[in-house]
């Protein structure tokens, strides 16, 4: 177990090191001079960008270390990142790590609530679809999944706001100050991923139930429901776990639209504001943070695979 975990950790660190190179080069590959691009973000609306002088550009290049060789710039930047220094926001002049730290809890809270919504919808509907394949229950489940997967999150969010906040007045429309404020954005974010997960679980269950040993057990009189819950559900959850790991990472980085619609104070909304304001250091820090989260989540899933799928343990022993 320890050797397997160490191999997966080494692979994750290798991927993360490659990502740091890509993230570092983002600012350096901006069309034109990076120092000029950074200065343009500091020009107040209505002012002429021609006021930027060559001396200003030279000062910024010196502050950013752009006059040093590229490998030295990368080593300096990586050293700061390893100490938790992601740089300073061009707009707020505040440390990026501090700003992300104040917004991550809100995004984690929203992502956790959306995952709960996903499992509450996807697991029962996927099981019903696999248990009653080809029947009316399965058809209704598949149609609802298709509708949920096809509906854009911003449209569903606006629809929920209009129905439950404006017309009925049951829930707040936006913000994150009240506990019930999380309900509408969590449903909006969870419905779309629940639809895809439900269809994946149904297909995985049907594939598992069609295996020869499952058909033999059913032919000998074992009920299909007993087969499903006792023997088929565990191996059928393996592809769902893979999907859930990608979904969990995507929720943290891809909730920007939902956070913007509901004015939720998370990192997704923070990223949208940084992109619109051309705050390149924030974009760098956010990209690196999301990459780290994806690597960590995939590492955890790899470890869980070892417990869910016996073939992983067999393969591990065969490689020793």
Automatic annotation (TrEMBL):
Keywords: Cell membrane, Ion transport, Membrane, Nickel, Nickel transport, Transmembrane, Transmembrane helix, Transport
Lipid bilayer topology: Multi-pass membrane protein
Keyword Transport tagged: yes
GO cellular component annotations of the record: plasma membrane
Bilayer-crossing regions: 9-30, 110-133, 154-170, 182-201, 236-262, 282-305
Presence of keyword Mitochondrion: no
Superkingdom of origin organism: Bacteria
Subcellular location: Cell membrane
Record domain ABC transmembrane type-1: where: 104-305
GO MF: dipeptide transmembrane transporter activity; nickel cation transmembrane transporter activity
Family named by the database record: Belongs to the binding-protein-dependent transport system permease family. OppBC subfamily.
NCBIfam families referenced in this protein's UniProt entry, alphabetically: Opp2B (NF045470)
Protein name (database record): Peptide ABC transporter permease
Organism: Nitratireductor aestuarii
Species classification: Bacteria, Pseudomonadati, Pseudomonadota, Alphaproteobacteria, Hyphomicrobiales
């Amino acid at each position: 177990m320890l050797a397997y975990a160490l191999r997966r950790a080494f692979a994750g660190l290798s991927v993360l090191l490659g990502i740091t190179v890509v993230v570092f080069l983002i600012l350096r590959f901006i069309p034109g001079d990076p120092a000029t691009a950074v200065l343009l973000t500091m020009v107040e609306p209505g002012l002429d960008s021609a006021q930027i002088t060559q001396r200003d550009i030279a000062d910024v290049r010196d502050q950013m270390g752009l006059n040093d060789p590229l490998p030295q710039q990368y080593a300096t930047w990586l050293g700061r990142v390893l100490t938790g220094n992601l740089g300073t926001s061009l707009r707020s002049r505040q440390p990026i790590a501090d700003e992300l730290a104040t917004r991550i809890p809100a995004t984690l809270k929203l992502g956790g609530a959306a995952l709960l919504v996903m499992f509450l919808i996807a697991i029962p509907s996927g099981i019903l679809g696999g248990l009653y394949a080809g029947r009316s229950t399965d058809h209704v489940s598949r149609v609802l999944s298709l509708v949920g997967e096809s509906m854009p999150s911003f449209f569903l969010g606006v629809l929920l706001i209009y129905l439950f906040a404006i017309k009925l007045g049951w829930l707040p429309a936006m913000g994150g100050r009240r506990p019930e404020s999380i309900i509408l954005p969590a449903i909006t974010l969870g419905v779309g991923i629940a639809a895809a997960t439900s269809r994946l679980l149904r297909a995985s269950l049907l594939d598992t139930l069609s295996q020869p040993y499952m058909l033999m057990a059913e032919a000998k009189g074992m009920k299909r429901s007993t087969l499903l819950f006792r023997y088929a559900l565990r191996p059928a959850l393996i592809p769902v776990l893979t999907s859930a790991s990608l979904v969990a990472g995507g929720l943290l980085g891809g909730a920007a639209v939902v956070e913007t619609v509901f004015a939720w104070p998370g990192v997704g909304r923070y990223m949208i504001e940084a992109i619109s304001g051309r705050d390149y250091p924030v974009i760098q820090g956010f990209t690196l943070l999301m990459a780290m989260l994806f690597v960590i989540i995939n590492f955890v899933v790899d470890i869980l695979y070892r417990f869910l799928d016996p073939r992983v343990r067999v393969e591990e022993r065969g490689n020793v």
